[in-house]
Amino acid sequence: MQARVFRSLTMSKTKTIVIGGITGGIGAALARRLVASGHTVAGFSRDPDKLKALSEELGIATCTCDATDCAAIEAQLPEFHQQLGSIDGYVHAIGSIYLKAAHMTPENDWLNTLHLNLSSAFYALRASTKLMMKQGSGACLFFSTAAAQTGLANHEAIAAAKGGIEAMVRSAASTYSSRGLRINAIAPSLTDTPLAKPIIGNPQALEFSKKMHPLGEIGQADHVASLAEWLLSEEARFVTGQTYVIDGGLSSVVPKPKA
Q1: Whole-model pTM above 0.85?
Q2: How many Cβ atoms sit within 10 Å of the Cβ of residue 100?
Q3: 48 lies in a domain?
Q4: How far apart are the C-alpha atoms of 68 and 21, rounded to whole Å?
Q5: What's the pLDDT tens digit per position in 130-151?
Q6: Regarding beta strands 40-45 and 138-143, do their DSSP bridges make them parallel or antiparallel, or are they unpaired?
Q7: I need a labelling partner for 208 at 20 to 30 A (CA). Which of 124, 137, 163, 232 fits?
Q8: Got the DSSP string for 88-122?
Q9: Are 157 and 110 in contact (CB under 8 A)?
Q10: Domain residues for 184?
């Protein structure tokens, strides 16, 4: 019998990927996967110390940049493009966790949540698509949340901001599909990253969160990074305008009670 040959679900050709929020848990996990597969990676965040450490670990180009500053994003992405020769993929691994009921959310907290999550994504979409249209190809990937898929108490602000990202992704996918660009999003539930430390560092909160997930555990950064890697790859070239939920069944499954 002839042996079957299976292709690896990785990028079939070398790509150049820029990651916004590269020092975060998911951003760093994705950078490590991409570099290990032989791809060129660059990225930015607001933490110079973490950038220096990650740059030295992986041998990649990094810089400090505030994603909520539209002018800064508009300047930084073309600089990466010139330095690297192309940007085949842009990943916006930037956001926050804000858990508070609407009536207890100050106006400034609401505006900050909206600005950090939705506005920064829009600024990055603007800047990256301008460059990719000149190339005639490219993939953009953004991050939503499982809280935009199902009603979770005290998530009003973050659910609204991330829900806006999902709507933006669908519209942008329609706008730029004829130019050879793909636009998608990933919606994770609670994931074990430094951003989630206030929750997962509390044993009671962690146990409660695990019980909310039908699979009985919270996500890991590499779970999400593996999906992100696939969405950037040639294997996903027929995928655009989608939000992929990776949440252990939280948003869609009612688990069977244990006997």
Answers
A1: yes
A2: 16
A3: yes
A4: 12
A5: 999 999 999 999 999 999 999 9
A6: unpaired
A7: 163
A8: SEEEE---------GGG--HHHHHHHHIIIIIHHH
A9: yes
A10: 16-192+222-246
